[in-house]
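haha ok so turns out i had the wrong file open the whole time. this is the CORRECT one, sorry everyone. sequence first:
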Amino acid sequence: MTNITKTKITVPLMIIASVFAITAVSYSPSDVRAEFSIPEISGSIPITETLEDYSDKSEIALSVAMAVSENSVENGKAMWGKLSVTQGFLVYAIGVLANDDVFHKVMVDAGNGEALYVSEGVSRGEWKHSKHSDGETSKKWKDHYSNLTAEEREIKKQQWTEVKDAFFALSLDERAKMIMHFMTMKVQFESLSDEEKDAKKLKMKLMMEELLPLSVEEKTVKLREFVNSL
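then structure:
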């Protein structure tokens, strides 16, 4: 084993242009952050140049990498994924949520689809009490719903949990399409004017306010309609 690369994963709670807002919010009411020590890996696509977009070099789709990651974790559901370069090889970094909100990181070879690394599971409780817990984001969550009673806040948490369940009810292809859409939006968001950003935020806020009160089945239908509109 040679140098160990530490990769920080950040799964934001409620930010515009990120599908993580849909899939991770019910996992924890604060940012999910952690560092995994990835052992030496050997992929099939070496990368020697720095590019803004490596998608043309990948030989498998995100949905395939997500399927591999789910097969690598018992009862796992792929919640997000992105193409990246790790230790000089092109890989998909996939976040997988298993039973009881146990989180895993899976690195999948972007060439042959091999699972190169599967992290140990980290529980929701361990996230909350780890040094990576983001107290500031937790405070923002509480401030955002400060006008609600404790009972009403619990209802909001349950509604966000149902958003996650609805997202996982989508097919792998549908989830992958949504993730790719929001990843693109996140990049484009940085180039918008303040007025355009505010308009995007308002549109997302209104969409989520409409989505939250629905049943899981209705949420699933709405998410599927959104995917089909992309």
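The first strand starts at residue 5 and ends at 11.
again sry for the mixup
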